[in-house]
Amino acid sequence: MNCCGAHCSPSTASPPACATPADPLLSFLQQPSVPQLPEGYRLETGEVPSPAAINRLLASCQESTHPEELWPKAMERSLWQISILEESTGELVGFVRATSDMALNANLWNLSARPGPDQGRLLTVLMHRALHILRRDLPGCSLSVSAPAMSLEALKGQGFVIDPSGIRAMGLRLKSTSGTD
């Protein structure tokens, strides 16, 4: 069993929120191969990118940015993060971070890669590496992925499909109601 409850090899990726494995009983030989970074990029797991760099990347992907003062707390609460940097400039071009209750649930957040010809490969590398780490460190967990539409092909390429009922995600922002119970 892997982190989404399906029977598959360690090289199979997990689904986006509310997705299901395309064929959970695929043999090991039918699983996607280990994706390689395009030339000119490097994977970074040790150094956390600056809040400004993460927000620039998210904005370039037309995703919501967050107040810079909140990023340190988000990173502190994360198990780990994976960045992809352009070697020539040091620019952050790919990012994902993981959180978990260390028991049953893991979450991938802020999956993003700079738009351009390498975007699909960058997303595939990020997802493959993130899932490798989660399977190694948190086997048997349930996984949710907060991912924009641009990442769907990378996720499908790792063996998952959108939920057949069409549900992608639902959310509710809770606000404090002072003075009421």
Q: How would you describe this protein?
A:
It comes from Parasynechococcus marenigrum (strain WH8102). It is a single chain. The protein has one domain (35-161): Aminopeptidase. The protein contains four helices and seven strands; from the N terminus they run E-E-H-H-E-E-E-H-E-H-E. Helix 3 links the parallel strand 5 (105-113) and strand 6. The protein is α+β, with helices and mostly antiparallel strands. The N and C termini lie far apart (43 Å). The protein has helices at residues 51-60, 71-76, 119-137, 152-157; strands spanning 20-21, 41-44, 80-86, 92-100, 105-113, 142-145, 160-161. Strands 2-3-4-5-6 form a five-stranded mixed sheet. A two-stranded antiparallel ribbon has the order 1-7. The model is unreliable at 1-30 (pLDDT under 50). The longest helix has 19 residues, at 119-137.
How would you summarize the topology of this molecule?
Elements: E1 20-21, E2 41-44, H1 51-60, H2 71-76, E3 80-86, E4 92-100, E5 105-113, H3 119-137, E6 142-145, H4 152-157, E7 160-161
Parallel strand pairs: 5-6
Antiparallel strand pairs: 1-7, 2-3, 3-4, 4-5
